[in-house]
Amino acid sequence: xxxxxxxxxxxxxxxxxxxxxxYECKARGIFRKEGISPSVGDKVNFDNGVIAEILPxxxxxxxxxxxxxxxxxxxxxxxxxxPNLLILDKFIAVAEYQKIEPVIVLTxxxxxxxxxxxxxxxxxxxxxxxxxxxxxxxxxxIRGILKNKISAFTGNSGAGKSTLLxxxxxxxxxxxxxxxxxLGRGRHTTRHSELYKLPWGxxxxxxPGFSTFETNKYNIIRKEELADCFRExxxxxxxxxxxxxxxxxxxxxCVIEAVEKEIIPKTRHESYCSxxxxxxxxxxxxx
Length: 287
Prior knowledge:
This protein is α/β, with parallel strands linked by helices. It contains 10 helices and 13 strands.
C-alpha cells in the first residue's frame, strides 16, 4: 500500500503524487455507496491503481472540489474593478469557517491609493500585501507565502491573478499560462481540478473567480457561528452584557463599542451585520 496526494482529477481518474512517482488510479466503488468522492488535495492510500482509503480531511470546498487547503489567496484590485468589501468579507468568512488561512493581495496600486483597505484588514490580523510591479519585485514575498503550503488563488476577473502568477512562477516554467487560462475561464468551460507543484515547495490550485463563487453553495454559516468567522471580534464578543448578543444592535455589546472606538473597522462590522441578516432568513431545511 502506497500513500500520496491527489494532484489531478479528471473523468473519474485520479493522479496521485507519491514519494517516487505519479500514479493513475480509480476510486473504489464503496466510496460512491458511502457518498464520498476523492478530491484533489486528498491524502490517500492506494494500491494496484485503486484508491483504497481517503485519509481524514482538515477542510473541503465544493467547486472546484479541493481538500486540505492551507490558505486562500484573494487577489483584489484597488480599481478597475473596484473592490467589493462585502463579497470579500463573505469569502474570508467561508475561509475562516473552513479553517483555511485567508491572505489578501492588493493589485493595481499604481492606479489608485490602497492605504484605506490596507488599514482595514491590518486591523483584523489578516495577512494583506500590496504588490507594486514598478517599484519592487513582489515575487519573493509571495513565494515565501506559498512555500510548503497548499494554496488556492481566487479573485475577480481583471483583478490581476494571471499577472501575479506569471510574476511569481514564470521563471520556473510550471505551466503558468495554463493556470492563468483556467483562472480566467468562462463560466461554461469544462472544469477539472489540479494542483501545480512549486519548485520551492508547496502547491497552487485554481479556483473560480469571485463573480462565480456563491458562498452559500460552499458553506452555510449559521448566525450563531458567524461571529467566530470574524477574528477581530474574538477579544470582545465574550465580554458583551448579554450571553446571546448578536453584535448587531444590542446595548452593552462590546463588539459595537470596539467599532465605535475604531478598533474594529466599520466596514467589517457592516459586512457582518449584512451576513447575519442573510443567515437569519435561512430555513432549517437549508441548514
